[in-house]
Specification:
Length: about 250
């Protein structure tokens, strides 16, 4: 096949990008309210928080609910676990992701963070074949730690995000927040500037009390969103956000 034919085939095979008015419903209770309707189609969302903030749980709910409620297939790429760990973890919050895999509604891929170029090699053909519309990469931070050259990391994510903007769904890139837990340290290499939407998961503890959790929409290109930090909880049923309540 010559390159012109290849170009045309790619064009035909690419999923239709939905208009901005049709939002991607996240499936996380309360999240569609704080984002004024859900994620923007084709947007790349960076989900940042400290360890234990609920990033993996949020991401799993996004894929699970997308597949179950809206029939949207998902791709989960992990840099730190194997597929079996993810299946077991999902079960603990009541999500049977094995059944989704059997119905071709979910693919789990484990990658070597030393070789992030593999991300584009996995994502591009699967997107072209419409094998997924929702994507999760959990997490970018492991890649940032392995690849010391910041420009190399940014280049990989820049190319990847450009491809993902053709997706009919949207993508979550998980990132570990700096130890200070403030939004000035959302990622190691600064990939938040490349993302369309940035969500920060916070926690605070008053002396002698249990810590509480708060979710902030730091930015959301092409959309208005809440400017408030809202409380959220994690239980055995997963994450729930309280859009009508103020965190502090
Ligand atoms: N079954 C459960 N019931 C109640 N809370 C739970 C349950 N499972 C997990 N949690 C809470 O969620 C937290 C872990 O969430 P999650 O694994 O999504 O965090 P994370 O942000 O991905 O962390 P890391 O950066 O270490 O990967 C736990 O520390 C606990 O507080
Ligand atoms: Mg995690």
């Amino acid at each position: 096949m010559n390159s012109v034919e290849e170009k045309i085939e790619n064009k035909i095979a690419k999923p239709e990008k939905k208009t901005n008015s049709e939002r991607i419903k996240t499936g996380v209770p309360g999240m569609d309210e704080v984002t004024h309707g859900g994620f923007v189609p084709g947007s790349v969302v960076m989900l940042s928080g400290n360890t234990g903030a609920g990033k993996t749980i949020f991401a799993l709910q996004f894929l699970y609910e997308g597949a179950i409620k809206y029939g949207e297939p998902g791709l989960y790429i992990t840099t730190q676990n194997n597929a079996e760990d993810i299946r077991k973890y999902a079960k603990t919050i009541g999500l049977d992701i094995e059944s989704l895999e059997k119905k071709n509604l979910l693919i789990i891929e484990s990658i070597n963070p030393n070789y992030p170029q593999i991300l584009l090699k996995i994502v591009e053909p699967l997107l072209r074949k419409k094998r997924f519309s929702r994507l999760v990469i959990d997490s970018a931070t492991i890649i940032e730690y392995y690849i010391k050259d910041i420009f190399k990391v940014k280049n990989v994510f820049y190319k990847l995000f450009s491809v993902l903007r053709n997706s009919p769904g949207s993508s979550i890139i998980v990132s570990e927040m700096g130890l200070h837990g403030d939004t000035s340290t959302l990622s190691v290499a600064g990939i938040e500037f490349l993302a369309d939407t940035v969500i920060a998961l916070h926690r605070k503890q008053k002396k002698g009390a249990e810590f509480t959790r708060g979710i902030e929409i730091v930015k959301m290109r092409q959309s208005d969103h809440t400017k408030m930090i809202h409380p959220y909880t994690i239980t055995k049923k997963g994450i729930k956000i309280f859009p009508d309540e103020k965190w502090f």
